[in-house]
Amino acid sequence: MITFLTYNAKDYRRHDTPDERDRHRLVEQVIRDAAPDVIAVQELPGHSDEHAEKAALWLAEATGMRCTLGPDYTGPVAATPGGHDDLGLGLLWRPGIWATPGSMRIHRGHQWWHALISVELNVDDGHRVRHACYHAPPRAGGPRRPDEATLLADAMTTSMGLVGADWNNPYYYADRDGRELAWPQPWWDNRDDPDIAVANRLAAQTLSHAGLHDPAVVLGQPRSITTGHWPSERNGPRPIDAILATRRMLDAIRHTVVIDTSIARAASDHLPVGVHYDPAAP
Question: What is the domain range of residue 71?
Answer without folding.
Answer: 2-277
